[in-house]
Amino acid sequence: MAATTVTRFAPSPTGRLHLGHAHSALLGWRLARESGGRFLLRIEDIDPVRCRPEFTAGILEDLAWLGLDWDGPVRVQSEHLPDYRATLERLSGMELLYPCFCTRADIAREVAAIGHAPHGPDGLLYPGTCRRLGATERAERIAAGQPYALRLDMAAALRRAPRPLSFLEVGRGRLRCDPARFGDVVLARKDIPASYHLCVTRDDALQGVSLVTRAADLLPATDLHRLLQSLLGWKAPRYRHHPLLLGADGRRLSKRDNAPTLAALREAGHGPAAVRAMAEGAARG
Ligand code: GLU
């Protein structure tokens, strides 16, 4: 018997949902419901500055209004910080993490001194300054209370993970991963005890997600997620990255560009069926 399909919708409550979110949620929901599987809802609110409880409430309200239901309790990431800490401790026990005391200005200075600034999917690649600190200096700085982030030692992680890494992208087949392009990525920030990449990988494994449906802008992140899954011995889900929704002007819909929110569409008199059709139709176009 084939294993049950478990999908999820994992929004960050940094604003109200727009049509792009509705498309993602509907895709995951349909794939679960059509196969007798499970559809989970997870609130990715690890960043207390950008995330707000009223947006979480708005997400639940909008999904219910659209007619989507989910299985089991909603997982709210900010309520599970010990899970992420335990994952960081495992990676640290494998000697794959190091503390990074650099400020943005330190990194900019170092990059200017090197003379070139390679970028990865998350922006500027870290030049590795704190990876080269000696054990005594690290211990002294920590003892002095200097704030630090935790970075993945990418070279060490790649030596440890089986090569080559790949994942199954529905409709495209097996895609090869190149996590090295993230460099020594931050897995716990100075101000936030975990990063998106760490939490999403932890939760997909913990919740038994078998098919990750999300927008294509997260396709590059999957390379890093596969590396973490492999280091931690977690099963890889299948992935289905859907195209980003475009507005009438052909530009991608996003919060930043003032895409109409579901709440605004509702207020303008559109019913749930019409908004569902808009969300699904837009992606086909
Ligand atoms: N929380 C992420 C976002 O809202 C999505 C994470 C994912 O689907 O992997 O962009």
Please give a structural write-up.
The protein is α/β, with parallel strands linked by helices. It folds into two domains: 1-79 and 243-285, HUPs (Rossmann fold), CATH 3.40.50.620; 81-195, Glutamyl-tRNA Synthetase, domain 3 (Alpha-Beta Complex), CATH 3.90.800. The protein is built from ten helices and twelve strands. It has helices at residues 19-34, 53-66, 81-93, 104-114, 135-143, 154-160, 196-206, 219-232, 262-267, 272-284, and strands at residues 6-9, 38-43, 75-76, 97-100, 119-120, 123-124, 149-152, 166-169, 173-176, 186-188, 211-215, 238-242. The chain has a three-stranded parallel beta sheet with strand order 1-2-3. Strands 4-7-10 form a three-stranded antiparallel beta sheet. It has a two-stranded antiparallel sheet with strand order 5-6. β8 and β9 form a beta hairpin. It is globular and about 65 Å long.
Largest beta sheet: what is the strand line-up? 1-2-3
Number of strands: 12
At CATH level 2, the architecture of the largest domain is 3-Layer(aba) Sandwich
> In the CATH hierarchy, what is the superfamily of the largest domain?
HUPs
Secondary-structure element series? EHEHEHEHEEHEHEEEHEHEHH
Strand content: 15-25%
Separation, N- and C-terminal Cα atoms? 36 Å
Number of domains: 2
Bound molecules: glutamic acid
Radius of gyration: 20 Å
Tell me the major beta sheet. Answer: 3 strands, parallel
* CATH first level of the largest domain: Alpha Beta
CATH topology of the largest domain: Rossmann fold
Which structural class do you get from the secondary structure elements? alpha/beta
Low-confidence stretches: none
**Which bin fits the share of residues in helices?**
40-55%
Overall pLDDT level: 93
